[in-house]
Amino acid sequence: MQFHDLSVNETARTPCVDQSTESDAIDFDSCDGMRQAVFYCRLSQPSFVMQYIQQLIRRDRKNVDEILTAPEGQDVTVWKYEHLRQFCMELNGLAVRLQEQCTPQSCRQMTATEQWIFLCAAHKTPKECSAIDYTRHTLDGAACLLNSSKYFPSRVSIKANSVNRLDSVCRRVYRIFSHAYFHHRQIFDQFEDATALCERFTTYVLKYNLMSKDNLIVPIAGAADSAAMEAQI
């Protein structure tokens, strides 16, 4: 089974894509003076925000607050959009691991606890899918939407009428975390210990008001408190 890669080359619709590589990337820890000016200039280039987020993750993936805090002057909507692209790419890793246990036979429905059964929106009329098919359809659908030239023609600025689509993507991809936590706990724990992805995602959606706290059913210690404290500042 293959999952959609959000890191496709978008040069055709964003001709100003930054061509820098990791080897010539700015050292974000030592930006001052002219380097600081260059840093903020490059943040306005289509792929550089994603590169910056990825460098923060590589530096310390468990420093969630630092990873999610936008640099001064950064367009917050673009920041949220790029983070969501990054989440979907990383979730492919959890999806691949889930295939070891989560099959159409073992998990016939996309569930999280006995109270939550989710319908798959990838069909003309939403219907039940096996959990692994729901996961695949959701990540493929998120990739198609976030790469859509209709809704997101630019990675430098986001159209106002496209912003609300981020909420629906967040709600759907969160269900992958919840299914893994409640039905494949060992896989979830191993993945979370290595990536802190669910903690980061939970903090992200609370920090930027993309999901209601009531819908966040995976217990993540400290995530809600951290986001609430940030919102009060």
Automatic annotation (TrEMBL):
UniProt keyword list: Metal-binding, Zinc
Pfam entry (one): Mob1_phocein
Residues at which Zn(2+) binds: C102, C107, H179, H184
Protein name stated in the entry: Mob1/phocein family protein
